[in-house]
Design goal:
The chain has about 120 residues and is an all-alpha fold. It is built from four helices and no strands. α1 (about 15-30) runs antiparallel to α2 (about 40-60), α2 packs antiparallel against α3 (about 65-90) and α3 (about 65-90) runs antiparallel to α4 (about 95-125).
Length: about 120
């Protein structure tokens, strides 16, 4: 999607699209986790990963810029939680760093995008 594309929906936001890509990768990653982790680390990672684009979308749909910023901050918090779960997954040998590190790098990039979006919204308030 090019940068001149008109934003008509949260689905047009690059930040939401990147959040969805990360969530998808996290679901694929946790498919390989042991079944006993289904209600443990797997569900923690999936819940945090889905929370990021969900909060971006919900914030976009709010009536005020202040509310939008609040939801973006919640998305940031979920992103940090996700990063923590991924790092712990490597430390307890549920995932390899070869698999987790590229996702963590995408998380860092998304974090920068969210911070930039927050600054942009705050500057226009």
């Amino acid at each position: 999607m090019n940068s001149n594309h008109e934003i008509r929906s949260y689905r047009d936001l690059r930040v939401w699209q990147k959040g969805m890509d990360i969530a998808e990768k996290c679901y694929l990653l946790t498919r390989n986790y042991p079944k006993q982790e289904m209600y443990g680390m797997s569900s923690q990672i999936q819940r945090a990963a889905v929370s990021v684009p969900a909060n971006i979308a919900e914030g976009y749909g709010r009536n005020s810029k202040g509310e939008y910023v609040q939801f973006l901050r919640v998305a940031q918090g979920s992103l940090k939680e996700l990063e923590t779960h991924l790092i712990l997954s490597v430390r307890v040998k549920l995932a390899t760093s070869d698999v987790a590190n590229p996702i963590l790098e995408e998380c860092e990039s998304l974090g920068r995008m969210i911070r930039s979006l927050i600054r942009s919204i705050q500057a226009s308030m």
